[in-house]
Amino acid sequence: MTTLPPLPMTRPKLTALARQKLPCSPRTIPRSQLIKEKDDIDHYLEVNFKGLSKEEVAAYRNSYKKNICVDMLRDGYHKSFTELFALMEKWDALREAAKVRSLFWLQRPLEDQPDKLDHFYYYLTRAEAAERKEYFEEVYNNLYALACYFNNSEDKWVRNHFYEQCFKIAQLIKIDGGKKEAEAHAHMGLLFEEDGQLLEAAEHYEAFHQLTQGRIWKDETGRVLNLLACESLLRTYRLLSDKMLENKEYKQAIGILIKASEIAKEGNDKKMEEEASYYLGLAHLAAGEYETALAVLNTYGKISTDLDDDLSLGRAYEATAKVLQSQGQMAEAVKYLKKVVKIARNNFQSLDFVRASTMLGDIYNERGYYNKASEYFQQAYDTTAEITNIPLMDETKVHYGIAKAHQMMLTINSYIESADLTSLDYLLSWKESRSDIAPDPTIGGSRRSTMESLYQTSEFSEEDLSGFPDNQKK
């Protein structure tokens, strides 16, 4: 939000007099002077302020809002009065309609906010005066100042009103090469984007981008407008593609993300290009185009490496693992996920660590390596407990419990198959305590040779299986 300096205004006569009786006035006003009833005020003025003009009496009697409106009309600003009156009516209507369920009801009435009324008077009348002289750039600046002043959660609808006014006036400005028009398209794009109307937002952002191509224009904060247009378009295209992917409109989503990638390259910003490649890769994955997805994600990984961006590199590895998993290349997927776990641990990214550990646990559990699965599910569960993420903790707890059950199942089956007294004693002891059951060394040894024979045919390496002789590939 743009911070505006205090208004250096000279108030009209009625407004200046009325301002003195406001509760926020620095002067100490006798309590009796603030009495609202007409008869009491008339009597007080007659006794204490003989010789006051009719205007001065009205200034003290009327509300500050009414004095503002009267000054506008008396000074000839009829258009400003009409606009302010319409805004005040809408303000009251919104508060009334919202009742106690909305922020509008909690807001103070406009007549109780003299600073806002001052801004309305100051900028609306200046804009009207400039419009009479056809100084449209000055009209735009005054309306935009009002939009910036009301750029807050409570008054956003007022800001949007003046964004629309700025957009209309910007079409009339012909002396700046289209800069104001470009800015107005940006504001309208933001308005529609916040309202969830993404197609309309994209249209305005595309016009904003087209008008700023080849220009070195900057906004009031020094940001290059063309780069801002690229960022806005990328953000909107990504949101549109998300909706398309939800509706399984894969071709349309990929098409719009390809446009986003081209715009990112045009903007000559590696960070934007990196982001565009990531979402394009995910779209190809969702569409089942695995080879293309790997190629795009490989580009994303290279850019992340060039930028020395470990977090983005971790995202690249995780997305690549998902593609490989979809292709059935589990051993390769495991290698990438282990890299994700390492990066997440080194960068204290708890959620990334939990997600990668859970994916590894799922792969090992699905392939029958229950000890390994239990290890990864346990570290995922322990991490969620540390960060007190209750929903995620419950989810990982279930995964961990299933893997532990599978792990115990192998040992119990081994004891049952052995059918000797020692194994029977182990089983009876376990039934009494229902605690974790440790594998018998003899039984474990007899199974080790079986696991070693699997190394030759398993898609997992010996390193992946080492230390887990009690697991068996499905």
UniProtKB/TrEMBL annotation:
Residue spans of the TPR repeats: 354-387
Region described as Disordered: spans on this chain: 436-474
Classification via Gene3D superfamilies: Tetratricopeptide repeat domain
GO CC terms in record: cytoplasm; sperm flagellum
Biased composition (Polar residues): 447-459
Record carries keyword Repeat: yes
Protein's cellular compartments: Cytoplasm
Listed InterPro entries: Bac_ResReg_Asp_Phosphatase, TPR-like_helical_dom_sf, TPR_rpt
Keyword line: Cytoplasm, Repeat, TPR repeat
Xref: PROSITE patterns: TPR (PS50005)
This protein's record includes keyword Cytoplasm: yes
SUPFAM superfamilies for this protein: TPR-like
Pfam family, one: TPR_12
GO biological process: cilium movement
Role, per record: Axonemal protein which is implicated in axonemal and/or peri-axonemal structure assembly and regulates flagellum assembly and beating and therefore sperm motility.
Protein name, as recorded: Tetratricopeptide repeat protein 29
